[in-house]
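Researcher: Re-running this chain for the archive, since the previous output was lost when a drive failed. Same request as before.
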Amino acid sequence: MRAPYIGVTGIVTDADVAAVTACVPLVPPSHRLMTGVLASAKTLRGERTLNRRYPLFRDVERLLAALSAAGAWPVVHFNCRRDDLSDLLPLLAESLPSMRGLQLNIARPSIFAVGDLCRARPDVEFILQANRSAAPSGESVTAEHIGGYVAEYGRHEAHALIDLSGGRGESLNVDLAADLLRRVWRDGWLTRPGVAGGFGPDAIPALDALRVALDGSAWPLSSLSFDAESRVRLPCADPIVGEPYQDDLDPERAFRWVALASDAIRAASGAP
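Model: Regenerated structure tokens:
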């Protein structure tokens, strides 16, 4: 399908599935609701993590199946050491038959491992996360860095997400994203670009700025994908003191984010 998406990442419980199910009808026909479930080498081994955004791995397949049944696009966001990727991706693919998308939150994942996955699971769309690792160590990320990073993966990626926040809630660098989308991305690629960074129910200024910056470009706002994580969550009732990511998906914030992004896409495309 390879259509762009509006994303809500960090699905952990059945209540989260119900919350994003309510968001599915909001999404315009041009897009899908991407629902991200986090997994890692640690959870894949059956170990617990103190990070509240990760479900137990034994629950991931059930969550993905429920999300698919609700009309969402079920995507796994996977994190591991780069050197372990070739060993772990086949196990991940075998364990999760309901997975329909995979984003690797890894600095420079192995091109060979990605290619093997794409051949073994053609039903899974790959999302390349273009993060701070696109730039050489010690340098600030530029549009040229990200464009070159994406180009390394050729046609393995169905989507490329500009994500310098990495789930930390940092706001999107609109100027950098617009610079990349105006000048570097090449027409005709299978890659569909997306952006992430600080999106949530208060994202109107960022979306408006991005729309204006991309006016007349090859990739207008209405053609992009968007992902949200930190700002659709609220602190949990029983946090573990001193540990990061002690939060839960907030149904109201998720609903407002998807409604906001959907309205922005419709307005940018001229749709009613």
